[in-house]
């Protein structure tokens, strides 16, 4: 017996506002039924003595420690800029707007 019917797929498609042909509805019902069968097979294998896991191997954090270091001063940052004005980077005007 199918776990999901063509009528249910048609209802879901309507809720999702997906226009599906009769052929697509039939094919999708079969595909979703196969997915549900696979999930059921996995559920049968999973027992109480098998712990739930999200990854097969443990994950470790590989980021570096967050250490505060001195950065550039405003003058040092602007030293390599093609144009600067009032202690800021000067860039071309966009969209013809005045500041």
Automatic annotation (TrEMBL):
Q: What EC number is given for this enzyme?
A: 6.3.5.-
Record-annotated membrane-spanning stretches? none
At the top of the EC hierarchy, this enzyme's class is ligase
Q: Which reaction does it catalyse?
A: L-glutamyl-tRNA(Gln) + L-glutamine + ATP + H2O = L-glutaminyl-tRNA(Gln) + L-glutamate + ADP + phosphate + H(+); L-aspartyl-tRNA(Asn) + L-glutamine + ATP + H2O = L-asparaginyl-tRNA(Asn) + L-glutamate + ADP + phosphate + 2 H(+)
Gene3D superfamilies the record matches: Glu-tRNAGln amidotransferase C subunit, N-terminal domain (1.10.20.60)
Which key words tag this protein in UniProt? ATP-binding, Ligase, Nucleotide-binding, Protein biosynthesis
Which NCBIfam families does its entry note? Answer: gatC
Q: What family name appears in the similarity comment?
A: Belongs to the GatC family.
Please give the subunit comment from the record. Answer: Heterotrimer of A, B and C subunits.
Matching entries from HAMAP family are given as: GatC (MF_00122)
Q: Any idea what job this protein has? A: Allows the formation of correctly charged Asn-tRNA(Asn) or Gln-tRNA(Gln) through the transamidation of misacylated Asp-tRNA(Asn) or Glu-tRNA(Gln) in organisms which lack either or both of asparaginyl-tRNA or glutaminyl-tRNA synthetases. The reaction takes place in the presence of glutamine and ATP through an activated phospho-Asp-tRNA(Asn) or phospho-Glu-tRNA(Gln).
Under which name does UniProt file this protein? Answer: Aspartyl/glutamyl-tRNA(Asn/Gln) amidotransferase subunit C
Name of the gene: gatC
């Amino acid at each position: 017996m199918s776990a999901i019917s063509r009528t249910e797929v048609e209802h879901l498609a309507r809720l999702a506002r997906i226009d599906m042909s009769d052929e697509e509805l039939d094919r999708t019902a079969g595909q979703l039924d196969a997915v549900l069968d696979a999930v059921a097979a996995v559920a049968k294998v999973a027992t109480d003595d098998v712990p739930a896991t999200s990854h097969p191997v443990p994950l470790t954090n590989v980021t570096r420690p967050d250490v505060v270091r001195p950065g550039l001063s405003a003058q040092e940052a602007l030293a390599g800029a093609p144009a600067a004005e009032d202690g800021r980077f000067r860039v071309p005007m966009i969209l013809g707007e005045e500041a």
